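Retro notes - structure team

What went well: the batch runner handled both jobs without manual restarts.
What didn't: labels got mixed up in the shared folder, which is why I'm recording both outputs here explicitly, each with its sequence directly above its tokens.

Job 1
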Amino acid sequence: MTVCIAEKPSVARDIAAVLGARNQCQGYLEGNGYQVTWVFGHLCELKEPHEYSPMWKSWSLSSLPMIPPRFGIKLKKDQGVERQFAVIKGLVANADRIINCGDAGQEGELIQRWVMQLAEVKCPVERLWISSLTEESIREGFQTLKDQSEYRSLYEAGLCRAIGDWLLGMNATRLYTLRYGSNRQVLSIGRVQTPTLALIVNRQREIENFTPEPYWVLSTVYRDTTFTAVLEEGQRGFKTKEQGAKAMADIAPLPFTVTDVQKKKGTEAPPRLFDLTSLQVECNNKFGFSADQTLQIIQSLYERKFTTYPRVDTTFLSDDIYPKCGPILRGIEQLYPTQIGALHGRKLLKSKKVFDSSKVTDHHAIIPTGVAPQGLSMPEQDVFNLIALRFIAAFYPDCRFDQTIVLGECGEWQFKATGKVITDKGWKEVYANEKAPTEEAPQSPDAAPTAGVLPVFKKGESGPHTPTLTEKTTTPPKPYTEATLLRAMETAGRLVEDETLRDALKENGIGRPSTRAAIIETLFKRGYIEKKGGKGKSLYATPTGVSLIGLIQNDLLKSAELTGQWERKLRQIEHHEYDAATFIAELKTMVTDVVKEVFARPYGS
């Protein structure tokens, strides 16, 4: 008998239907030589401190650091968990082979392997690895099963992550609570949550300590077009009103002369397909959805077979997906007849910005499966539309435009005006009746104003003009929203708009796409952050959160950049580029150093 272990009951039912296992039994389905059972999330967890040593049951500074010689796992104390585990253990005891049908990612691999370890599996184990739950995808997956040993590095990375969270969380939380909690509250510290909180606290301090400075912008209107004075690089405007007023007085009686007219043709490629983070960012910007809300919605769309696997960190498709794109588009054409209909009669574009197997490891970007959705809630419909329109736009040509830059002078001062007109909408036709994607980099407020179509200017022409001097004030950085915080987590706190550079920084991001929403939710639940301000989207640290970060002087605990380096090593373990044992040894050293550092600090400091 072949036993399949799925990630949850609904997925087990989908797999069983394809395999012909239609007989419902207690905790599993059976038929056609298969028994299909399931877990539901983590049935197992790492043992608690007191289960390694009785000395670690009570919280005391003398017991720190707590570093077990060997980590062990246990079954969660829950009647439902115990009942389902008993079913799994009974099935695998009599199995000829087992197929791991868990979630196709690091966490899913860890969940399944822990269950099989505790159930003492002895027979061969194969791995099902699929990116969607459609019948076609499941059938293809069972035709290309791999030996589970090929995914050992994925398990090792997940195990190292769990051990790292245990070592740092257990030790640092007890350490700071006992030393600084004043017996009133638990000061929770985590490997990813604390650097994330520090990002918010540091941004808050920047805002609170910001001193606005006035500056004055000189501009002039010539032939109904506003030209702005070009000052030294990095200079927004005149530092004093007197400087600006003198410049305006100097140019007022003089004619304005056009010194150069530059015309350039430009293109704008379709927006990238979605990974989980960019989808969460877009949904927060566009609909105000929290990161966790978006994750729940896209998980539901995946389980209902409408979209592909969601917990991904790439915006690319592998080359073998290209032949499937035509059928996918036809499957949803009834929902988007105009946008998809325009693609008829021509070969689908295959851009390197979309199809690049070298940028895909375990899973590709989030796309529709080709199954037309029915019975969606309004939020689900909103999210599906975002994904579908991005996918459709990927097969449209670039948007083309003409850009004009006009330079002028008046006395000793140089001026500039720019204009842009779209000559071929290209992919923007897809969004003719929709709001355009919001992830494009915002224009700097100090950039020269951009008009639509400028009048025709000729080099050397001259005439009267009307100068003005406008007072402006520097503005503080904006508070984080969930969208901008997700981007900061992805890039270890660096402000990056360029997508190519952002891709390079993902290796050092903190947390994983699948866990970042949970980290933010944890900060809310523990009272470290709150939402307030316009539309309730701005994130602020509470006094408790600010106080906690103020207590932590060790950068290893609160630096996004340093934590990102640890995350990179976890990814390297997953890809056979770093040794798991070395990583664990480094973790133990780090935790020991953190404890020593706090012990060495006088009380009250």
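Job 2
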Amino acid sequence: MSYLKFDKNLMINLEQSLPKEMLRTNKSGAYHCTTIVGCNTRKQHGLLVIPIPEMDDKAHILLSSLDETVIQHGAPFNLGLHQYAGDVFAPNGHKYIREFNCETVPTMTYRVGGVILTKEKVFISHENRILIKYTLVEAHSETTLQFRPFLAFRDANALCIENSVINKEVRPVDNGIATCLYEGYPELFMQFNKEIRWVNDGHWNKNLIYYKDRDRGIPYTEDLWVPGYFEMPIRKGESIIFSASTFPTDPASFEATYEQELLSRTSRTSFYNCLKNSAKQFYLKQPGGMYIMAGYPWYNVRGRDELIALPGCTLAIDHREDYDLMMETFLKALRRFIDEGVKDKVITDIDLPDIPLWTIWAIQQYRRRYGVADCRARYGESIRRLVEDIRSNHIHNLRVDSNGLLSSNGTETPVSWLSASIGGRPIIPRSGYIVEFNALWYNALKFLSSLYADIPEEQEYTLELENLAEKVKESFLSVFLNDFGYLYDYVNGAYTDLEVRPNMVIAIGLEYSPLDRRQRKKVLDLATRELLTPKGLRSLSPKSYGYTPIYVGSPEQRERAVHQGPARPWLFGFYADAYIKVFGLSGLGFIERMLIGYEDEMTEGCIGSLSEMYDANPPYTGRGAVSTAKNVGEILRTIRNVKELNKLQTSQED
């Protein structure tokens, strides 16, 4: 039985099927994203969405969708589905769907009278190209297929309206056409593996709406250009393959290319395999290096997000080589910024003060998998330089005070992951001593010391690190640990932020924590009571005055709510680490039960992946970006850790 399979009853019920989305990427920045019924509900949805570096650093939708029509006995049956003004859906092709299966590749099965037609989609790795394979499984009479492309040629975050500057020309290519609607865009090549007839029938399809954008309080109506349609007969048992790309292709190669791509797919037959498949969708390979996209459909590469996602999206799924390539790319970019002040063209936020600290944490996860000697040989010097950069105040907006703690100014612009802002001003002005910054600092000092502890000629240096770590520990406890047993979120001069937030869980979940076991347990108990949900940790306790559990409303309302309650799955990784540190192997059962809450999401939201955030109250609906790297990565890292600890427990029992 398929793990990701939806039957007719769900598919024809738009209330149930429209909220479910699917995502495929080419691991080089291009993607295909839509709902499982093929109706686009966001402006970022599209069949072929690509980066165009020559224009900007944004994604652009070339081909929005492709409507298929089955013709028998002269009667057309359109399989497409769009939403129009007045909440009208047409042409209601979803009523012909019998099944959607996404075990290996997204596969739709349609039934129109005696016709059974399957549609399978494959995004070609590292090419701006998608293949769609149609197979006529059953037919009792002559059957003809028509295909109508809906073209956008726009920024994925913009909308298209009818205009007179559009280039309506198409030119013939092998088994298809090529067209380019606007200057500056690449040509779109639409081809088939068999000879096909093209019929010019150019017109604007007007007033399509995207209800997800309407719900977000942003523009949501657009017009799309339909240049005409393709038509060809198809026999029972025959397969035809459609290709959409930014370059001409050889139709004779379509079948071989399609089959080759299938071999590289991870079948989504389990919770772990779903997340493994999802993790690889975030990979971004470019001439300048290899990266992890923060999420889809609207994020690029963000420094902190990449570092948090990196161990889980690579090491936890045994992609060590990819980890090394990504970390090498990141370290080069970070070193260039520290030494020369030059920001990277691909990685945003590399100038934030906690980036060196998260870099060290990400490398620490490598040590956990491959040991001290390997980690020291590959990354020891990089960690050492970063620690010394911090100690010598060479990191932008990060200062070591006389008490050993790190301070940062976040009053004017956000400096931590709680980055919501209005007019550029942070809604939560975390400034001064920030709890996770200093916990990561203590952890970094202890980690670096451990790397060189067995090297005789480094004894003086490691003793220096240990003394500084002890100083940081004493100051940390004095500044952050309050009389109520939890940690202040930040302390700025005489101001102590009393809000209960999940950043204190990062402090107790690190390998080296400034808190002892008793202190960690008090923090953990409070976090469990006030922050833990089946979908991660709340960003703010429900007992707080500003608690806002749901991320909805206008752009400003959502910005104000984003860090005032909604839960984040990535924080569960640190919670799980902290729980095991406090309760030992006896805590494994609880963590495994909590993971079930994330497995439930594999058939919700973006199927097989995890959303950016979840409502902090039941039913914990997913919000924000439909697929997010650091959430997927940290749950994968937790699953891997649990498996390893279970093996350890079994060996101890034997």
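One thing worth noting from job 2: Residues 355-391 form the longest helix (37 residues).
We'll revisit the folder naming next retro.
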